[in-house]
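Project channel, design review

CF: Before we commit to the Allokutzneria multivorans constructs, I'd like one complete example in the thread so the newer folks can see what an input/output pair looks like. Taking L-lysine N6-monooxygenase MbtG.
RD: sounds good, go ahead.
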Amino acid sequence: MTDQVESKHDVIAIGAGPFNLGLAALASTVDDLDLVVLESRSDFRWHPGLMFDDAMLQVSFLADLVSLVAPTNPLSFLSYLHDTDRMYPFYVREQFHPTRREYEHYLRWAVSKLPSVRWSHRVEAVRWDTGASLFTVHVVHADGRRSVMQAKDIVLGVGTEPNVPESLAALPGDKLLHTADYLHRTPDVEAAGRVTVIGSGQSGAEVALDLLRRNASGGGAMSWLTRTVSFAPLDYTKLVLEMTTPSYIRYFHDLPQSKRDDLVAEQWRHYKGISTETLEAIHDVLYQRDLATGLADVELRNGIAIEGSTVDSAGRAVLTCRHRDTGRTFEHVTDLVVAATGYKQRKPAFLSPVENLVRRDEKGRYKVALDHSIELDPSVSGRVFVSNADLHSHGVAAPDLGIGAFRNATILNSVSGRELYRLPKNTAYTSFTVPGGAG
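CF: and here is what came back for L-lysine N6-monooxygenase MbtG:
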């Protein structure tokens, strides 16, 4: 069956995570801007495998889809509270940080008010039509129907995918899961005599806390092994948080790429650490365990590198470990491994037809301009923008919800060629450059 041309738009955004939902929310109040968001899933879900009942968002409610650039937008978090008649309970609660479940409820509320988001639209291919000077987006619908959309500009918001390091790749699926799937694998967790968490970060700590609570209630043994020298807290002190502001992003983007890479590696505690509240909850469970008897073993070790994995004759996972301080190696035996090993950028297959037009750096990453557009062959007059694929170019703020509205306003100003949204300039007390602003 021949693909049918369905529509033409100013912007097609691919992927309906929080960042592209924020793009749609800001675009929804611009009358002469035609933007659609395409998503392969049938409805919205946000990290369901880690939706613990008491999990808190790590940023303020102001880090919603719109407020940090357009606080009067009808899709702000405060508008959500008003619309759902929850304003006074939120006010009395006196907590700036919503629960993660509440934030997902807010996002689903926003989705219900955004007809520009098209669900069950799987993008199969993106091509550049030189004659029309438009990107051609080939879409497969839930019923198998195919169609074509065209747009001047594209925004990629396909997000990340679970990363499993090579050292764990030899383990079969029944012995290994990623934190992203943790709550989906509850029966496997409950059946295991020992569950071992590999890696730190907030998701690893939340899984460790859940396992500790299960253990304290008579559940199985648990181990938590990390490469880091400590179970390090997030560095969310006020002046450090200024590195998530537009002021720091502008400074960071102007640095040589080698220096940017060094800084991202140094600043890992800003986006890979553990909230103080979670660390306190973990210690409290460990402290309460001292008063109990007959509980299964609990083990916490840091400074441990995993160098290999296999399954023994008894069907248990065996990890080859190295103690980083001493260099000594040992084997760790467990029934189930939970990889808290982070995420990596997706490499969307639908970009294959235009891959020869995309310019990358020596590490294969997009070359990203300050306005979040990637460098393309000069023959392409359209632009491709990226959301949360710019850690290497824009710094540790890239995955932070608090920068989403600013990034999206920057993109919309760029695609429209005018100032749709006034971008904040006074965003940090810290001066990052040398006096006079010289490079």
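RD: helpful, thanks. The two ends are 57 Å apart (CA to CA).
CF: The mean pLDDT is 95.
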